[in-house]
Structure formats: structure tokens, C-alpha cells
Amino acid sequence: MFPPVFGQRAYVGGTRGLTVSVLLVLLLAIFVDLTAIASLGSVVALAIFLVVSIAAFKLRAMTHSRPSVLVAAIAMTLLVIVMFLVETFRTEPQTFVAMIGILVLATVLDLVWSRLRARRAEAP
After folding, report:
1. pTM of the predicted model as reported, rounded to 2 decimal places
2. What is the mean pLDDT of residues 5-16?
3. Contact 47, 54 (CB under 8 A)
4. Strand (E) positions, the chain?
């Protein structure tokens, strides 16, 4: 869950979260090579497909899905992600480092924000 401040109205219109997102995207577009941005988009799309496939596998009884198809989708997606990461590391090491850096940053921010929310929930 995002911080409540992101839902507040911004002075320039919209919400503060939208304003922050626009500023971050502009900075990314200005300072990062567009091929690196495209590579990041590709790996994110693959990760989303992987997560959805895993969720479908867990819900296979409710959805009456064939486990073999879901396992194949998960395995193929993992294979493509691994191949993509190896190829990116080999041909564009800066992009690979950027992907790892963004993953680490996102994980750290999520952990910090989760702990802050947990402390606020525990406070009387």
C-alpha cells in the first residue's frame, strides 16, 4: 500500500502520487538510455506474467485449469527471464546493473514502508 500522502490533492492538479510518478518518469527518461528503459519494461512484463501464472496454478482447482499447461507456462517464463538476464548481462552490463539496482531499491523501500506501517498500526 502506498503512503496516504500520495492520495492527497496536488497543487498542480491530480494527486501527489501522480505528480511524483510524473517527475520520476521524466527524470528516468532524461537520464537513462531508452533501450535500458525498454529492457526494464520487458523484464517487468515477464515478471508480471510469471506472478499471474503462479497465482493461476494456486487457484487451478477453482478455475479448472490444467496443471500441465500452468507448469509449462511457469517453466517457460522462468527460462525466458533467465535467458534475458544472461543476455542483458553479456551485452548491456549497465542495463543489468540498473535492473538489479532497481530491484534492490524497490525491495528496501517496501521493507521500510511495511515496517513503518506495522509500527503505526501497533501504536495506541
Report:
1. 0.70
2. 81
3. no
4. none
